Amino acid sequence: MKSRGSFERRFGKYAIKNLSLMLIICYGFGYLFQMIWPDFLQFLCLNPYQIVFKGQIWRIITWILVPPSSFDFFTLLMLYFYYSIGTTLERTWGTYRYNVYIFSGILFTIVGAFLLLGYTLLFQRDIVAALGSGYYDFAASMFSTFYVNMSIFLAFAATFPNMQILLFFFIPIKVKIMGIIYGALLVYQFVKGFTTGIAPLDVALTVANRFVIGASLMNFIVFFLTSRGKVHMTPRQAKRRTDFRRDMKKASKITRHKCAVCGRTEETNPELEFRFCSKCDGNYEYCEEHIFTHTHVKGKM
User: Fold this and answer.
1) How many other CB atoms sit within 10 Å of the CB of residue 142?
2) How far apart are CA 44 and CA 61, in angstroms?
3) Do 285 and 292 form a contact (C-beta atoms < 8 A)?
4) Which residue, 2, 94, 153, 296, has fewest beta-carbon neighbours within 10 Å?
């Protein structure tokens, strides 16, 4: 806990505020490419084979622009939903911790992609050779921000388990139930794998799918194991905590200089100079406008 606090004090100033909006803006560019130049997206995917053997290092970053699905009205609703829960988590956890959670999910995904490359080169060389280089292109399309978004929802469900949402806009359901359903689906996808009917392809894609799911959700696993339920609170409680911290921060500001006449300080008027009056009995300080015009205080110690 002490080390986490020291890291936050050291690097917290670099945290990106409203990170959920930044991610949606990245999606916006991705959907724009999808509509006007769809073939261009294949040069942005997280393809470790192209990075290592072709030197296309930009893919380490540009894969964030690749949208997890095609654009339609349902996509707009989902983006708004993830923006809402993301900003709620940021207000609850704080900007720094939310940044760490998101960027760790992105980092784990990148690491998982390279681990998959290493695994295929060591243990599936014959299978991949039979499938051709197109296997790496298909596997790269699986490494998207879809599961990173899923990790945001799972973290939201773990933080606000008793919050109620409207499924399909009219079915009330608690978030923890949705989280359990999503978690069960992920476990099912992880275990089941792919069944295309082509044995070598099924084996290769099943392994790739497990690397994708495991790597993308590693940040939630770390969060769940380290938080141990200590962040459960309602949005109202989160808002009260945020307001309390803000008020305490304001109250903790102790001014060093204050004019005894007008009450201005170095915080409210940093352009002013302050001086103590040697003719007043006691420690009376005045701003530059009242140092020579005030009435001297006598007989008060």
Assistant:
1) 19
2) 8
3) no
4) 2
* Alpha helix positions (H), the chain: 2-11, 19-36, 48-54, 59-62, 73-93, 95-123, 125-131, 134-142, 146-159, 175-192, 199-216, 218-227, 235-251
Q: How many Cβ atoms sit within 10 Å of the Cβ of residue 166?
A: 9
Q: Structure tokens of 180?
A: 């359990």
Q: Does this model's pTM top 0.85?
A: no
Q: What letter would DSSP give residue 47?
A: -
DSSP string for residues in 110-136: HHHHHHHHHHHHHH-HHHHHHH-THHH
